[in-house]
Amino acid sequence: MYHRGEEIMTDGQNADAIRSSGKEKPLDYVNAAFLILTPVIALIGISWYAWHYGVTWLEIANLIGMYLLTGMGVTGGYHRYYAHRSYECGKPLQLFYLIFGAAAVENSVLNWASDHRYHHQYVDREEDPYNILKGGLYAHMGWVFYKDMRAVYQKFKNVPDLLKDPLVRWQDRWYLPLVIGFTFLLPACIGLIEGRPLGGLLWGGFLRVVIVHHMTFFINSLAHLYGSRPYAVDNSARDNWLLGPITFGEGYHNFHHKFQADYRNGIRWYQFDMTKWWLHIMRLLGQVTRLRITPESLIIKAKLEVEMRHVEKKLVAMGASERFWVKVRWRLESGRKRLESAAAQYQQAKTEHRRQKHQWSADMRKQWTGNIVYCRREFVEARRRWRDLMQALNRIPHPSAQGLITLTAVFNVLKTRIL
Ligand SMILES: [Zn+2]
Ligand SMILES: [Zn+2]
After folding, report:
1. If we measure between CA atoms, which residue out of 162, 182, 65 comes closest to residue 110?
2. What's the rounded mean pLDDT across residues 112-139?
3. What is the spatial distance between Cα 129 and Cα 330, in angstroms, rounded to a whole number?
4. What is the pLDDT of residue 330?
5. How far, in Å, is the centroid of ligand 2 from the Cα of 184?
6. What pLDDT digit, counting tens, does each position of 371-397 carry?
7. How far apart are CA 73 and CA 65, in angstroms?
8. pLDDT class of 363 with cuts at 50, 70, 90
9. Rounded to the nearest whole angstrom, what is the distance from the C-alpha of residue 252 to the centroid of ligand 1?
10. How crowded is residue 380: how many other Cβ atoms within 10 Å of its Cβ?
């Protein structure tokens, strides 16, 4: 559970945030009307239409198909390609992203990416457009109800690369016709195949827009409120596996805020990240290149820092003696250094092998394979010791019930089992 103000803002910053809340900006009636009316039309319209004319498989397919296309336009295109440049892709894919990203009705990519880059740069601060400290509802959709009063040059100063892109400028200029054509006319035309254009419009147009909107909004609200923070605790972003499947994999938001240039959000194979899998397929088809990836050693380093902070916080809370502190800290530091260095060496050995194996003789390759096996063994051992250390420290019960005897017992565990 996220505690407001915890490790994030100072009192001064908090006061600033409250003073300049979104309420001071004028309302954007067009945005407000669109966000309020689309769910109303979708709900009432579909209930009435289904009651009188039933539901067809084409309408369900229309909803799912348009959801997948526009959702990917936002996550694969607007977010991971345009806002973060986490990979390279050619013009056909860019055009796909720009058309179906527009059909998600979340503004042109120029505006979207600019807001998003400010969000990362100033997360949890006043300049963060969807600052969670202004409340869950504000971060979810409230911020869209207010006009952006900044001058254009001021707003777009963080997207110079996008301003130079003719396709991006084209999408910004023709945003409204693109919305009308691909958000509403396209699903209506699909419905026309079976003589039910209104059914197509309601299912593939209105209902789908509402679902994609809130899918995106959940990342700005829920993924900053609920979940774990394994990679960074200095901001509110959370890893939330429940959000993974419904947000095309964007739910691993703590990792994403820490390593925003990485093309993945869910880095493990079992983490549901549909955008990552989409990019793998696009790479196989030759549409995507240079997928950026964070070195494993940096990921481990970030995790270790967070774990160390948790332990330190616990020891402070239980008022551990200076002598105990020194001993535990020494063990933590040496364990961390050993694991970091083992991870870096293992990774370096693998990279070197991958790069140069074609130039090496059979003997050289054999020798290098032995080196990789040795580095891996050292890494696994260092990781095992670190986990043992964490387990031992996690056995320290809550400070309220403990005294010196418990501290001594824990220290004995450390002494016999660790390092
Ligand atoms: Zn965020
Ligand atoms: Zn991002």
Report:
1. 162
2. 96
3. 42
4. 82
5. 28
6. 888 888 888 888 888 888 887 777 766
7. 12
8. confident
9. 10
10. 12
Domain ranges in the chain?
A: 11-289, 296-417
Looking at residue 77, its pLDDT comes to 97
Residue 226 alpha carbon to ligand 1 centre in Å: 12
Rounded Cα gap, residues 310 and 307, in angstroms = 5
- Distance from residue 171's CA to the centre of ligand 1 (Å): 25
CA–centroid distance, residue 335 to ligand 1 (Å): 32
Q: CA neighbours within 13 Å on the CB side: how many for 367?
A: 5
Smallest-distance ligand from the CA of 139: 1
pTM given for the model: 0.83
Distance 250 CA to ligand 1 centre (A): 10
DSSP notation for 56-88: -HHHHHHHHHHHHHHHHIIIIIIIIIIIT--SE
Count of C-beta atoms within a 10 Å radius of residue 293: 15
Ligand nearest to the CA of 113: 2
Q: Whats the size of the chain, residue-wise?
A: 419
